[in-house]
Amino acid sequence: MFVIIDMPIEEKYNAVLDRLSLVETVHIPFIIQHMGKQAADKLKSIYEEGSKPIPEEASFGEKYELAYSNWVLIFAP
Prior knowledge:
Elements: H1 9-35, H2 37-50, H3 60-75
């Protein structure tokens, strides 16, 4: 038998932010290399258009929900 321990919300939020950083560090350079800067700019504009801003003053729960919805927009269309 095993015990499931819920991850703290701050940790969940930071994990989603780490995944979102892949867009700038991996996806965009890949697109630039294989399809050109114009395609990368188009992709970035699509991401930015659909993503929601994360207010500094929001609780970690709210920040997580917004970050997760942005992640879903990008990684699970």
